[in-house]
TrEMBL record:
GO biological-process terms attached to the record: NADPH regeneration
Record GO terms (molecular function): oxidoreductase activity
Gene3D superfamilies xrefs: Dihydrodipicolinate Reductase, domain 2 (3.30.360.10)
Any one GO CC term of the record: cytoplasm
Protein name, entry field: Gfo/Idh/MocA-like oxidoreductase C-terminal domain-containing protein
PANTHER family the record matches: NAD(P)-BINDING ROSSMANN-FOLD SUPERFAMILY PROTEIN, NAD(P)-BINDING ROSSMANN-FOLD SUPERFAMILY PROTEIN-RELATED
SUPFAM superfamilies according to UniProt: Glyceraldehyde-3-phosphate dehydrogenase-like, C-terminal domain
Amino acid sequence: MKRNLQHLVSSINELETALSTYKSISADAPGQIIWSVAENYRFKPALIEGKKLIADIGKMMSVQVIVEGSMNSSNPYFSSSWRRSFIGGFILDMGVHFIAGLRMILWRVVGTNGTLQIERGFQGQHGYLVSLYDANGQCKSSFFPFIGVTEELKAFFNDVSENTLKKGSQFVPEHRLSFVEGARDVALLEAMLESGSRQGKQVQVKKF
């Protein structure tokens, strides 16, 4: 089963119930049940490359994430009915993806030896520009297209194939598709929103 997590849950309580139910069903199943979460940000080549480059900038000094999302009639997601009635709406739908990217790479990161920056869109192209600035200000940049969904589906189909061939005995699913990773994204986003509603007070993030 492969589902987008924000279509399934809208709170920590629902996450815990869903995870408990999945474990219960899996315990009685004759083979391993695959429950994959459709989170394409963990499969974007730009973010994967950025994660590799993090080690080159030294000790982390600061992190900056800037997200601008126009949610009006020009956006194809604006007309979807479930986002209007679903708890969390557009914020949960969009935010959970950026949280996934944040947890994976932290986007613009300033370190003692340089800065790593990932920008969406470059000179009219659809994709990401990954730039690594060293301590002397020299920059190395690479462009990566939007193929996260394609890579995500490849990983899911590979999991299904491997699980069938190995019959669950030695099968290890792709961790980036795991329900637990999706649950952690939602938990962090919920904690951020709660902190904001409490004027920035520190909030404990639910651990999964």
